[in-house]
Amino acid sequence: QPDPTGTTQVTTSARTYTTPRDSISVKDPWLADDVICLFRHLFARQNDITWVKSIAVKGETSGQFRPINSDRLLNRTNEQVYHLSKTGRVPIDRLAIGVPYQDKSNLGRWNHATEDRRCGGNSWFMPYEPASNAAGKYGHPAIFPLELPRRCLKLHGRRGLVLDPFAGTGTTLVAAKQLGWRSIGIEIDETYVETARRRINVDLPGFCGERLAYFPGLSLECEGAL
What we know:
Layout: H1 24-27, H2 31-37, E1 44-52, E2 54-57, E3 60-63, E4 78-85, E5 123-125, H3 147-154, E6 161-164, H4 171-178, E7 182-186, H5 190-203, E8 212-215, E9 219-222
Parallel strand pairs: 1-5, 6-7
Antiparallel strand pairs: 1-4, 2-3, 7-9, 8-9
């Protein structure tokens, strides 16, 4: 449901659109576009963000990516994050995820430059967190960095309720609780649900027990703030 500001973070429940991560660029390169178009009559496309997993600059490579064994496809080193809102005019806190000015002479030169912080733009370099085996960290093959949902939540500049309908091993739930948000996660794989429960207890000491409810095979709910 939309919150009072008109912003809604939502993911499609049409599971027919999901495919193994490795096959997305090979079998259906239009997948992300098809999914986002499902919401066109409901939401405005306010921001497009590129999550950069790996980048090569001046011969030096930073980050990690999963290579594609192909003679026709480039390695996929980024993914898209879509920020949808009801109106497209919802204020965000750009400086909450801002970066320092490289040229300090900008301070005082522009009326808006009142502190050493500027908008970091819509390309977010976040390498995968290291994993010890092919199964991935926490036994999930496609886990994203904790900083990715943290940065999305920080943009809102206030606390609220976050829903992750494909919760996996709970990365979004952990990020939400670290920032004092309430959160609901939905996951049909009971192994991942149990991993998420353990992970919340490990990553957030003291947060467990009565504030964590588990509905078998369906959802994981976290109430209260740290």
